[in-house]
Amino acid sequence: MPALLDILKSSSAYYGGNAAFIEDLYERFLQDPNSVPEDWRHHFNLLKPSSSSEVAHRPIQAHFLRLARERPLAGRSSQACLSPAAAEQQAAVLRLINGYRVRGHQNANLDPLQLRDPEYVPDLDPAFLQLDNIGDEVIFNTGSLAAPERLPFRKIIDLLQRVYCGSIGAEYMHMTDTVQKRWIQERIENLSNQSSIQIDDKLWLLTLLTAAEGIEKYLHSRYVGQKRFSLEGGESLIPLLDELIQHAGNNGIGEMVIGMAHRGRLNVLTNILGKPPQEIFAEFEGRVEANLQRRSGDVKYHMGFSTDIDTPGGIVHVALGFNPSHLEIINPVIEGSVRARQRRRGDLTGEQVLPVLIHGDSAFAGQGVVMETLNLSQTRGFTTGGTIHIIINNQIGFTTSNPLDTRSTTYCTDVAKMVQAPIFHVNGDDPEAVLFVTRLALDFRFRFNKDVLIDMVCYRRHGHNEADEPSVTQPEMYKKIRRHPTVRARYAEHLIADSVISPEQAQAMVENYRSSLEQGRVVSRPVICALKNIFHVDWHPFGKTDWDHPTKTHISPECFGNLSGQLLRIPGDFELHPRLEKIWAERRRMASGDQLVDWGFGETLAYASLLTEGCPVRLSGQDVGRGTFFHRHAALHNQVNGEPYIPLQNLQENQANFLVTDSLLSEEAVLGYEYGYASAEPNALTLWEAQFGDFANGAQVVIDQFISSAGEKWGLMCGLVMLLPHGYEGQGAEHSSARLERYLQLCANHNIQVCVPTTPAQVFHMLRRQILRPLRRPLIVLTPKSLLRHRLATSPIQAFTEGCFEPVIGEADKLNPNEVKRIVMCSGKVYYELLEARHTRSLGDVAIVRIEQLYPFPLEYFNKAIAPFPQARDLIWCQEEPQNQGAWDQIKHRFRTHLQAGKRLYYVGRETAAAPAVGYRPQHIKQQETLIDEALSGRINPDMNQRSLSNLG
């Protein structure tokens, strides 16, 4: 580096390459002095501002002055030196260039409606930099500007204005990666890149704008007053997406997965994906296909679709995800789906499958899942190689909101700066500029595998929906909109003025498109039908099986021994933590049969058995590698150097892939991501674990809008497993209940499974059943906390090598059936407390039955479990949760409907409460002791059973 410094000093300080190099080094130095070599650090330390009020880049001006005095200017004699005044001006010009790069977007022509006057930006004003008296023809070095090395002052200003203050406003100087910034500069500052559109492309662009406008006008006239969330005002989205697909296909993309909310969806379905117009019209007219009548269905602007589109680089499969009204919740779902598709292709860097997310401006700025999803983008377990984000920026939120009320930031896109994504704002009324930034954004994504944003600033010609009257609250905006010509009209006039097309040809495009709609022809690019795609997943085998399909889930004793040995094998140079040494010693005894198998080992054995059978396993959540309760230890860390070792990835040579990843501190985005993954990959076991079951509250939108209802609304299948730690150990309201009642309330039409396993063997068989049974429904599992190391919550080896998952476990002790007066029914941890209390009291008249699967309710297994006790008159449901929570309110009708005559049903548990649990441990212990005593003794609290007590005889 000293040699390079000498070379720079011996040449002109104003040679373009030198200026860029020094400017770049100095920027890095200001951010982190240790990021530059020591000699440059010393050099820049001499340039510190003389006062705190001096701007940060001021010292670089003195630096140029010093070099100007010391060294000759290139191209002149050694005696000819640049004067200090000229050096001062040159430095100011370089600062002006930097000012345009940093803040030029603030004066860009972005708003088609010109709703606000441009703000004054001092950094763009030559007078502010004392350059107002410079003659237009004075020549300056252009530094790192992608232009000739030396240009007259006026040409420098003109170039900067055209590049940074035209129809495109580029925000990228917030990025710290110099290579990425320089790449963008070279692409956007070379004006020839922006003016390279050919006549055929112009005509196709007008064709697409005609289609975008045509479908909206047709629907508006044919289905008056019906909601369609039109794209009018943002029609440039259609050529944007068309260019994105074509350019992506030309760069090797084989699949594109799109997520978007309502606005413009019908337009995209018709004009991009090739959905037949008759199907769109049928949805408006309420005509439903016979095979959909068994489902609830959904509104037309929530529906998904997929198709195959030809591109210069080959066929691209394009899928549009189903989207509920929670606008941005689709983001992580799409990312998870893309990750699954990438893994199926072996696409580890995202070169073959591309995620595209289309947002509204207010939703992007206002909904937290956007930030959470962005935060996933560069993490190891969740990256998809970069997402193209498109903002349909209507400059108004929902029905009435002014941008001043929808965010605290200058732009709706500012949140994306957290991941240093470049942001390209573009005027939606300039479709050629839209095409340029589309190519630019996609090329950046391919080059750097990072997220990139296109903020298409436009407007909304109608209200939030077509029945809304927006001028009631936005009179000034909508006066301008009513007078404003459409995007198609403006572009047609532009092409007519340039003699590219005649007025008659432009009108013929409109009439031809409408004629195609009326005839029901597909109006998009030709779609490819009956394509055989080797990466296609056939879901048909997973929807024809009932819940009780016989499934072999046990493994052979030899397999148990082999798997145990591989799981417990540790590399010779690997140093375990002392606490893990003890756990590994215990697991060795479990493997040999000298000790019963505990929960952590039983669960791990389930994964190991599936992996060796060719089934991939993906497990994510907070602390899942170790396990929140120090029980799983799927990922080990060498105590010498911190290097990880994952036994489940080292079972055998040809095993399936196992990924365990500790997620970021998010429930909503991560659960949405895993739902998306599981909904695209039926042949892998996908699991998400909450740190505490209560924390799934933060992902309730995913649970309500996707996990529990996607099958009914959209016919989608998904085998996702949710592991929710649950149990009352006196840890307060937020660490006790997984809110079991909420999941049971969502149960209907066999949409999900809800299980509460109480033994390691049960969880082993349950997890294996989830993937081996040809049925894909989400599985909600209430997992234990204290039971993870409970001496009774264990299983012998035979329980893994024999049997299967038991939806109901009957009485485990040998009681005299004729002496049993009460049957206590329960789920989960409370079983062991009841059991131990019964043993302590030597009670022989109480049987205990565990309901391990609460939904679908296993009636046949339940009747079989209580049948041995014909003399038992009282059936007691015992739970730890308050009466208005837990399973009681959602399960009592199961018992009432099917109990034999003469039986009575009672509730035992905590009284109704607003919070799930108390926060004082002594109070918790007292409540727990009371409910155990009431259940076993039969001393029922009458107040809690006024409505529940029922003599069914």
Helix content: 25-40%
| C-alpha geometry | globular
Q: How many DSSP-defined strands?
A: 25
The Cα radius of gyration reads 34 Å
Overall residue-averaged pLDDT value: 89
CATH topology heading of the largest domain: Rossmann fold
Q: How much of the polypeptide forms β-strand, as a percent range?
A: 5-15%
Strand order of the largest sheet: 3-9-10-8-7-4-6-5
- Low-pLDDT parts are 1-17, 49-58, 67-80, 949-953
CATH class of the largest domain: Alpha Beta
Number of continuous helical runs: 33
Name the CATH architecture of the largest domain: 3-Layer(aba) Sandwich
Biggest sheet record:
8 strands, mixed
Q: For this structure, what is the CATH homologous superfamily of the largest domain?
A: Thiamin diphosphate (ThDP)-binding fold, Pyr/PP domains
* Domains (count): 4
What does this entry look like structurally?
The chain is α/β, with parallel strands linked by helices and 953 residues long. It has 4 domains: 2-165, no CATH class; 199-518, Rossmann fold (3-Layer(aba) Sandwich); 557-801, Rossmann fold (3-Layer(aba) Sandwich), CATH 3.40.50; 811-951, Rossmann fold. The strands form 5 sheets. The chain has an 8-stranded mixed beta sheet. The radius of gyration is 34 Å and the shape is globular. Residues 1-17, 49-58, 67-80 and 949-953 have low confidence and may be disordered. E1 component of the 2-oxoglutarate dehydrogenase (OGDH) complex which catalyzes the decarboxylation of 2-oxoglutarate, the first step in the conversion of 2-oxoglutarate to succinyl-CoA and CO(2).
